[in-house]
Structures are given as C-alpha cells and as structure tokens.
Amino acid sequence: MTTTALMPLDPSVSPRHAARILPIRANLLPQDISDGRRARRTRAVVLSAAFLVLALLGGWYWHATTAKQEAEKEFGQVTRQITAVQSQQGQFQKLTQTKNSNKVMEQQLEKLLAKDLSWQNLYDLLRSTGDKAGVELTGITGGLAPDDAPGSAANTGLGQLNVTGTAPDKKAVAKYVDALAKLTYVTDPFVTSVTQQDDPERQDEPEVEFTLTLLITDKGLCGRFSAAQCKAGGK
C-alpha cells in the first residue's frame, strides 16, 4: 500500500474555500475533431441559406408565371373584343361614309354661303329706323355684288340697296338719313331724289317722296353656315 502525505491545512482557510473547484477550462479534444464540428456547423448554415434563397426564387418564379398567365389571358380577351368591334364597324360603314359626305358638304356650303345675308332682318331694321324718323318706306330692292366685281369691298360694299318712301317733309328725310348713317349693317346713305307730292286731296298734309341708296357692310353677314348667327334665326 502506498502512503500519500497530505499537506497540513492552513488554519486561516475555511473548509468551504478549501473544497472549492478552481474555474479552469481546457479544450482537451483533438484538433481534427474540433475542425470537423466547425466545418459541419458552417456547412449547415450555408445549406440553410442556399435553401432559403432557392425558396425565395421559387416563390418569385411562381408569382411571375401566374402574373404572365393572367396578362396573356387579359390580352386575349382584349384582342377578341377588338376583333369583334372591327367586325361590327363594317355594319356602320355606310353611316360613316354618309357622315364624311355631310362634313364635306358643310365645308362646301360654308364657302358658297360665306356672304350669306338675312334680308328679312335687314328690311326690318330699315323699316323700324324709318318709323322712328317719321318716314314710311314703300319699297326696298337690292342685291349682293358678285365676287369678281371691280373695286374693293370698303368702297363698293357687299351690295347695294335702293329704298323708296314717303315723309311729311324734307327734315324727316334728313333725319332718316342721319339715323341710317349710325347703323353698322349699312353705310353711305345717299339721297338720289326728293319730290313734293301734288295731291289736291292732301293739301293740308303735303308729303314728299324720296329715293336713296345704301351700301351693305360685312357686319350684316349671318346665316347657318356663316361665322355669325342671325338674331332672328337666319332667313
């Protein structure tokens, strides 16, 4: 039997401190085992990350494929609708041609009726102006000048009017001429004749007959196919 000599205990050290295990750690595994464990952990992390990436790519591919299929489906529906509408347009081809013909006709009418004039409005204007001046119109004749007429529109106007009527005296005729000069639809009122009536039955109320001419301005142009619309709805 072997005898082991024990060191005497220090009286200043308590039994609990004497039995305390020292906090010493030591890795006693061989280096190859530690490296193998570390490699397995690293491989597990890499494989998990790769699996996660593949899962994300798979989900994205599935979503993209589904969206593409839906887009192709909608495109097919729209294509069929366009084809159906195009086939229906053939039924309204005559209507489309008629509308195009109407547009061409309206453009031609706008050119032909560029100098359209509401004669009724013009006659009413001359008569109402005469009533205010105290004269009575007995006749109004006139017409528009042709496009190839010599002279400018500023000098000859768009046309000429010949007005005849009766008035109580020459002052009334002059008043009527002054009122006509203030109108915009006509210009240059010119009295060509003023004659005294020799009526024995109306010696107490003598009258004069007058004749005057007027030039029509472009202010009076109006009509359905003109730039300006007539106030009374045209001719």
UniProtKB/TrEMBL annotation:
Enumerate the transmembrane spans: 44-62
Coiled coil segments of this chain: 68-115
Answer yes or no on keyword Coiled coil.
yes
Keyword Nuclease recorded: no
Q: Which UniProt keywords apply?
A: Coiled coil, Membrane, Transmembrane, Transmembrane helix
Q: Which InterPro entries match?
A: Extracell_DNA_Util/SecSys_Comp, PilN
Show the PANTHER family listed in the entry.
Answer: DNA UTILIZATION PROTEIN HOFN
Q: Could you identify this protein by its name?
A: Fimbrial assembly protein PilN
UniProt source species = Actinoplanes teichomyceticus
